[in-house]
Design a protein that fits this description.
CATH architecture of chain B: Sandwich
CATH class of chain B: Mainly Beta
Structural class of chain B: alpha+beta
Radius of gyration of chain A: 28 Å
Number of helices of chain A: 5
CATH architecture of the largest domain in chain A: 2-Layer Sandwich
Largest sheet of chain A: 4 strands, antiparallel
Helix content of chain A: 40-55%
Largest interface: A-B, 39 and 44 residues
Distance between the termini of chain A: 71 Å
Order of helices and strands of chain A: HHHHHEEEE
Structural class of chain A: alpha+beta
Helix content of chain B: 25-40%
Shape of chain A: elongated
CATH topology of chain B: Immunoglobulin-like
Shape of chain B: elongated
Largest sheet of chain B: 9 strands, mixed
Radius of gyration of chain B: 32 Å
CATH topology of the largest domain in chain A: Ribosomal protein S3 C-terminal domain
Oligomer: heterodimer
Number of domains of chain B: 1
Number of domains of chain A: 2
CATH superfamily of chain B: Immunoglobulins
Strand content of chain B: 35-45%
Distance between the termini of chain B: 111 Å
CATH class of the largest domain in chain A: Alpha Beta
Number of strands of chain B: 13
């Protein structure tokens, strides 16, 4: 009779159950790995913008274009990107006429899934020029 | 006695339910904050890059215009260059639709965003100031930002001379600054005037012009001239961005 009326033990079990649920929920909310950036396209797009901003921050980008130093420009872009990323750089004037006569890329394209970022680059010299730079990226793997 | 016991039993159940509700509230709040933080991190990277790229191109445009104007170009080139940039930025928006507006400063000493003040009191200023606003809206992000671009190259010049009636040794100190502090000169041309309202005579290597570069924007100049009087000297400087500035100073006898 006493066993049936005394339900304190059941309450303890329920309490323990809720505590377990609480602990498991808290553990589940801890991300299993740090997720940087987002999707693969977003990561590549950010990498393209970051690369072009880095080159433009000290005027190197417009200077290399004005001097038509395509090989140096290719090396600069290559050094700022991961070796596992394929790139192709196309430079246009402000009327979207292509400027670079030679291809500025890291080789032949392996992966067809590319991401392109357009970047407006203004020269700081007294002879003002605007270039639109299209950097296409894709993962080699 | 019975009533008391029933009440104490119910309070335990209520406590459990209350704690459950509070737990659920806490968990849902934490989850909501976590999700919001994740979205903000992803979008803020795109916003930062888009804003940085636009700010960099406007800075380069203003530097280019000031270099042009300070070397004898028309002051309207600032407005024309910025209009070209606006057209390029708006037609190659980074994410969605962008609207870039600019307003050159039109309060003294600036006129149409340009100040050229090359004084005879030893101070020369070439400066440009533009206020801009960038409004971008797209499927994944929208932002609005107001900022100003100020580009300045300034020069100070002080000089003195020693010597006899016909030959003088002039010593001068020239300091170059930009909007961030000291700046380096790409080239310095020194001239002197040996009579009031007379012609400006360039100091040539024959006059043994000696320039000491201290590496911090300070340049020590000295040269010898054959002249009865050395009234004024002038320093004309191009900084590393090709912005031209000059200043004149009256030399004192030491």
């Amino acid at each position: 009779m006493r066993f049936l009326k005394d339900n304190r033990g059941q309450i303890r079990v329920i309490e323990a159950f809720f505590a377990a649920v609480l602990l498991l929920s808290a553990l589940a909310m801890i991300p299993s790995e740090t997720h940087v950036g987002g999707s693969n396209d977003e990561i590549l797009h950010s990498a393209a913008q970051r690369t072009l901003i880095t080159l433009d921050s000290d005027g190197t980008l417009s200077r290399l274009i004005e001097n038509e130093s395509w090989t140096t420009l290719r090396k600069c872009v290559q050094s700022l990107l991961s070796p596992t990323i394929w790139f192709n750089l196309t430079i246009f004037d402000e009327n979207m006429n292509p400027i670079n006569e030679v291809q500025i890329s890291s080789g032949s394209q392996i992966n067809k899934d590319t991401v392109a970022a357009d970047y407006v680059c203004a020269s700081s010299g007294s002879n003002y020029r605007i270039y639109v730079i299209r950097l296409q990226l894709s993962n080699v793997n | 006695m019975k009533r008391k016991r029933r009440n104490s039993n119910n309070s335990g159940q209520a406590l459990i339910i209350t704690s459950l509700i509070i737990t659920m509230l806490l968990l849902s709040t934490a989850y909501y904050v976590f999700e919001i933080e994740k979205n903000v991190t992803g979008n803020s990277t795109s916003i930062d890059y888009a804003f940085m790229a636009t700010k960099l191109s406007t800075l380069n445009t203003v530097v280019s215009a000031l270099a042009n104007v300070s070397n004898g170009g028309n002051p309207s080139v600032l407005r024309a260059s910025l209009s070209r940039l606006v057209s390029a930025v708006e037609s190659h928006s980074y994410d969605g639709e962008s609207r870039l507006l600019f307003k050159p400063l039109n309060s003294s000493p600036y006129q149409d965003g340009i100040e050229i003040a090359w004084e005879s009191n030893g101070l020369g200023i070439s400066s440009a100031h533009v206020s801009l606003s960038l409004n971008a809206s797209g499927p994944s992000l929208s932002y609005y930002s107001e900022y100003a671009v100020n580009v300045t190259t300034a020069l100070t010049l002080q000089g003195s001379f020693t010597g006899n009636d016909s030959e003088k040794t002039v010593n001068a100190t020239c300091r170059v600054y930009d909007e961030q502090g000291f700046a380096l000169a790409k080239d310095i041309t020194v001239l002197y005037q040996n009579e009031t309202d007379g012609p400006w005579i360039p100091v040539s290597p024959v006059d043994t012009l000696n320039v000491i570069d201290y590496g911090n924007g300070t340049y020590s100049l000295s040269f010898n001239v054959y002249a009865q009087n050395v009234l004024e000297i002038s320093a004309q400087v191009h900084d590393t961005r090709d912005i031209f500035v000059m200043a004149n100073a009256t030399c004192n006898i030491v």
